[in-house]
Amino acid sequence: SSVRPIGNEGSRNSAKAKRTMIKFGDRQIVVDHGFKLFLITKLPKPEYLPDVFIRTAVLNFSVTEVGLEDQLLARVVQHERADLEDMKDRLTVSMAEDDKQLHLLQEKVLVMLADSKGNVLDNEELISTLSQSKLTASVLKTRFEESQETNQSISKTRNLYKPVSSLSTKLFFVISGLQNIDPMYQFSLEYFIQLFDSCLTDSVTHPGVDQRIQNISTFTVAHLFKTISRSLFEDHQLCFSFLMAVAKGLQDVTITPELWQSYVRCKVVHPPNASKTNLPPQMDSSLSNASGKSLAILTDCLSLFDSLAIWEEKSLSCTQSLQSNAADWKRWLALPAWTPADGFPGQCDSLPHFCKVVLVSLCKESSVLPIIQDFILHELGNNILSSTSWNLSSIFPETNRRIPVLLTCAPGADASSDLEKFAHAHGMADRVFTISLGQGQGPVAERAIQAAAASGDWVFLLNCHLAESWLPSLEEIVENINLHYRSYHENFRLYITSAPTTAFPISILQKSLKLAYESPRGLKSNVVQSLHRIGEQHWNSMCQTASQPEIAEARSQVNHSIQYSMDRTICTAWTKLQFALCCFHALVLERRRFGALGFNIQYGFDT
Q: The pTM is what?
């Protein structure tokens, strides 16, 4: 049924007692004149029929870039200069009170003038009030001007930390836009602010403001990338990495709006009032065999770079480089498989990295992926890009009884075995409720959650996408856990697995700790996953176990230096054996994609 806030005013009970009625479904309901109805949705882009917009007042409460930047700036200053932020708050309140008091005095004088009778000069009370108001207004005005000067000084100091809030705001809108890629990629503003606060706390401190800002910015990019990328499938991580790198470039002003728009629109976008450079006739003849469209785009693109004044060699412009290296540019345009290692003609290798991305994307679309990967590596660094691996044990310190852990499983991936191993490693193998969701399993899961919350056990809810009708009940359970978590046992944990589905409640997606679970691709990813599953602690313990029994007798007959050499030799051999097994396991998993073909056809390892 639809709720219509406009009542049927023609429906009245009687002539003496007029009552307003509204139609709710198929019933007529009496409505009090003071009744108001507020409907709230967490959908980022709700779609309503025109009839709803006509009958309701739709308000957009989504966060804006300016508002979020101010909010994050206040949190940064509160963390770094709490005294400054407190002073600003007190000053804001004081200025508001003074302004209010000044308006009250003015209104009082106007009321007395309106009510005055006879000669105004004979009204001593009015004259006294006017004199007092004038004196008070003068004091308030002076204090207001002093407060404004102080406020400007505080704002100048606060703006030193604005690069942190500006960068974080850009990163938030990158993260919030991931929901357009997959409906499971939902991240709330509350969750982002928690991550932002942790970045302020965990980043390296420094007495210098500039270095401290640099430390916060670097740590924020790395921490957000590590935390969010583990929630994304591998197919979407390149897109996320690229958008993160672009956001960082826009903040560092290494990427201009014209460059970004040129890449997005696949068309060169010149700045306002910028002049376009045309090639001389001899240039056209030297590139006569090149594609006319490619030549025009190349010329237009290099002209854009000149207009942005980003060419490092002041004595040579981009278009001059094109004219002086015509043969090289001709070969570059005709090169079928270009990679960043091949470089650019002339001195264009010194162009900023995103300019190279724009140039390749417009002139050589088939080679855009390698140049994007090179751009991401330059902007984010290898340390950040290599920090995306995770396992259940590594993220366990981040879990608590309040926040459920959601494992989004790719098609064909099953996290149940890893969850069982994880519970066994933490001594919880006998204290786990494992429920595979399906028909009739919803009430069983509810009873298991209630029992585990009281006793401090763990609950594994598997394949929640198979119980779409029960997901609203799960949403209520998670909401109740979030509100009354203090009454739950401290060791209680809730783990949920589900395939991507549009029916999954948004509130759970936004409040949970999300992990993308899928089979790794490539030898390197498989080896890294195997090593993470072994764990450093288990690796070292197995090394010690392997070294002690075999040489216990021999160690007693030699000196300490030889003992150390023997232990190290056997430990090294053990680690080599484990690593070789991990590589062989990764090879088998990769060849599995080719079926019997991969194991029956002879071919070289270099193919």
A: 0.78
